[in-house]
Amino acid sequence: MKVEQTTIPGVLRIGLEVKPNDDGWFKENFHREKLAALGMDVVQHNVAYFAEAGIVRGIHAEPWDKYLSPSSGRVFAAIVDLRDNATFGQVETFELGTSDALFVPRDVGNSFCTLTPHTTYNFLVNEHWSPERVAVDLFDPELAIEWPIQELSYTERDATNPSLEQLRRQRA
């Protein structure tokens, strides 16, 4: 496991060793002690499968830490700091494949776009799911996220997320 700090405090990019074998490959995606050393005690593992490229989800910030990694396919991840701090609104993007993971702390927004069909995305979290979250518009011009695919598919719920400026006003 190779851990790198990113420009957003607490967000870590993690390189995972993928070992080719005669049948395909093997990776250690989850190791309790290694994740505990990062400050994460996993309580739930979620898996999402996406049949098509261009499916986008987010930008959601939940009250739990997340460890994200594709087990098949590739994703473009856009991470946005939504915490009340000096880096509020800062964006960093990543392309993630099977040898990559991200550690995203609670209250930092996470979004992703599938780059390939048949993408499977793993989400390990340190709190059980609840509907509580903060969300921001995927296409907010202030964030200026350059989504890598022209035609995107997203949920109606994500289409109605507030702008960063609306979120600022709600918190004031």
Automatic annotation (TrEMBL):
Cited InterPro entries: RmlC-like, RmlC-like_jellyroll, RmlC_Cupin_sf
Gene Ontology terms describing biological process: dTDP-rhamnose biosynthetic process; polysaccharide biosynthetic process
Record's GO cellular component terms: cytosol
UniProt-annotated site: Participates in a stacking interaction with the thymidine ring of dTDP-4-oxo-6-deoxyglucose, residues: 129
Any coiled-coil regions, as ranges: none
GO terms of molecular function: dTDP-4-dehydrorhamnose 3,5-epimerase activity
Similarity comment: Belongs to the dTDP-4-dehydrorhamnose 3,5-epimerase family.
Stated name of the protein: dTDP-4-keto-6-deoxy-D-glucose epimerase
Species: Kribbella jiaozuonensis
